[in-house]
Structures are given as C-alpha cells and as structure tokens.
Amino acid sequence: MMKRVGRHPNVVTMLGCCTLKQPYCMLMEYVPCGDLLQYLRQLRVEYERRTGGAFAISSTMQRPLPRYVDLQLPFIDSEGSYIQPEIIGTTGRPSIADTEWSLLSNDGPLLKPTDFSSRSKLEYILDPKELQSFAVQIARGMAHLERKQITHRDLAARNVLIDERKTLKISDFGLSRSGIYINTKRKKVPLRWLSVEAMRDNLYSSKSDVWAFAIVLWEIGTLGGFPYPSVNDMDLLNYLLEGKRLEKPDNCSDELYSLMLHCWSHSADMRPSFAELVSHLDSVICRKRVYVDFTSLKPDYSFPPTEQQTEVPTTGTAELSK
User: Fold this and answer.
1) Is the pTM of this model over 0.90?
2) Residue 182: which H helix or E strand, with range?
C-alpha cells in the first residue's frame, strides 16, 4: 500500500522496505514534532493560560475513551471485499512481497541526516491563518490519495504528523485500502470519525474520508475537542441518521461550518471531493477570510472537552445491522 501512496509533501513517505523474508521492515520518513492533535491540545493550554480560563477536570473525568471500537458484523468469514476502479484492475490490493527491498526514487535533494537525540521544538502560536493552512495541507494530502484511488479510513488529527516547519503529513495507513472497500470482518475502527454509510453499511470510499476530514476541521476549530462528547457509542448511528451533526464551534465562521455540513451530507454523492475542497480552501478569496477567530470568544469560554474530560458512557463496542 505504501508503495502505491508514493510521494507528496503532505503525506508521510516510505523511503524503502524489505519484504522477502522476516523480519519485514519499512524505512519511513522521520517527522519529529509529534501529531496534530497534541499540537492543538498544547494550543488550548496556551490559550487557557493567557485567558485564565483553565478547564476544570474532576476526578471522574480522567478516564480516556477508546478511539477505536469493535464493529460486530453479522458475517466475518473474509478479510473484506473490494470494489476496484477500472484503472486499478482486478488484482486486488497491491503486493510488495515479491521484492527483497525497494527504494523509492527521489527527484529532490538527498535527505540530510537527522539528529534524533533532541526533539525539534515548535512555537505554539494561536494564529487563524496557520490553522487554515493546516486545513489546506490536509486537504492536499488527501486529494493526492484520492487521485491514487486510496481510501485512508482513519483520517483524524492524531494521524496527521507535523514537522519543524509546521508542514503536516498524513500518516498511519494501517486501515487504508485500494478503491471502494466493503468491510466484512470485525475490526477496531475509529467510530466517531466514521461516515453514516461506514457505520451502517461498512462501506468506505474517498467520500467517507471527506466526512472524516470535516471531523478534523472540527478538531482544529475546537483545539483538539472530542467528537460527540455527549453521545454514547451505541447511540451515535441513530443520532446521525436523525440528521444531527456536531455543533458549530463558537469560534468557527458560518462559512466554514457550512463546508463541514456539506462534507457530512447523508448521501456520499452529495459530498465534495478533496480536489474541490482544495480548490475552495486554497482560493485567493478564502485565504483572505478568517475561518477560526479566537478574538470573538468570551473570556469564560470553555472549549468542547477532550476524550480525557468526557464522561459519556461507552462500552467499547458498537453493533451494526445490515
């Protein structure tokens, strides 16, 4: 899969791999500054420190909720079925098991050795333009995967890495598949980032990734908030089928929230493509607008809770009916 992903500035790169015999290994690009979720959470700490609005956490709110849950499906006799685009052919998922090792070609300069002994430090600045740049970068990386006919299936702020230049790179392709994917085996999945059709029909496509992208936009706007903090895992599908969605963060513009709602359309066909999202977010007009404005927040404003601050009950499993 990673060989098919190829190279893009906003996608983590596989530099090489060895798959002829065990132990298998992959040589991945080093991205030194952690993930976007932790960066956003640190921005939240900085904001609360400056405003004096530290979020009070009771002893009963320390239990982290699982980000991934088991989907108990009615049939689990195979790894999954694929609907392959014509351009991919009928060979199923690409295999790299017939090569001893592989090094991807590099059209740019050679990578310089990195000092791994010291973690690169980032400057945490609550800048609306920076957050908008993050949204554009993620959309660009996902548009690259869309062109490659790859469905990520686990797009979330925690799976977006950040380097010392604040370049974002989409990572964690453990759930990724080629083409449109129908899951037929019980596996742990990121429930609160899933689209309606992924939860109900176990159907994944680039349009389900678009749904997850809007959840990431919400994570950015809330500085790492936990999606649907008041909804039980088992109630989430019905909640969405009733037409309910994540509430608009107070600091997000109506235009940005309208874009989120577009990405959360019940029908996958009604959602924009990542190419369209890039075109919209990166347009000259949009770059001049402020989509996330922290100056408009009241001094006593509290961001939506993180998963550690959420008291909603969860069983860790979700049962979907066909």
Assistant:
1) no
2) strand 180-182
SS3 of 128-169: HHHHHHHHHHHHHHHHHHHHCCEECCCCCHHHEEECCCCCEE
Cis-peptide into 190, omega within 30 deg: no
Kindly report the CA angle at 27 between 278 and 216, in degrees rounded to 5?
30
Q: How far apart, in whole angstroms, are the C-alpha atoms of residue 92 and residue 114?
A: 37
Helix (H, G, I), strand (E, B), or coil: what is residue 40?
A: helix
Question: Which domains, from first to last, does the chain contain?
Answer: 32-54+121-287 (1.10.510.10)
**Which residues participate in the annotated binding site for ATP?**
29-35, 158
**CA–CA distance, 80 with 183 (Å, rounded to integer):** 5
List, in order, residues 6 or more apart from 158 with CB less than 8 Å away: 35, 36, 37, 38, 67
Which residues share a beta bridge with 292? 252
Q: Does residue 180 contact residue 204 with C-beta atoms inside 8 Å? A: yes
Question: Which residues line the annotated binding site for Mg(2+)?
Answer: 159, 172
- Order across the sheet with 81-83: list the strands: 81-83, 180-182, 203-204
Please state, rounded to an integer, the average pLDDT across all residues of the chain.
78
Contact between residue 224 and residue 306 where contact means Cβ atoms under 8 Å apart = yes
CA angle 33, 39, 43 (to 5 degrees): 140
Q: Are strands 150-151 and 177-178 parallel, antiparallel or unpaired?
A: antiparallel
Using one digit for the tens of pLDDT, what is the confidence trace for 36-87? 999 999 999 988 888 875 443 333 333 444 555 555 544 333 334 334 443 3
Q: Please identify which residue in the block is written with the tokens 């939506």.
A: 304
CB 278 within 8 A of CB 135: no
The CA-based dihedral angle spanning residues 223, 227, 230, 236, taken in that order and rounded to the nearest 10 degrees: 170
Out of 98, 154, 163, 300, pick the active-site residue.
154
What does the alpha-carbon distance between residue 236 and residue 259 come to, in Å, rounded to a whole number? 21
Instruction: Identify whether 154 is a catalytic site residue.
Output: yes
Share of the chain above pLDDT 70, in %: 70
Q: What is the mean pLDDT of residues 238-244?
A: 98
What percent of the chain is modeled with pLDDT above 90?
47
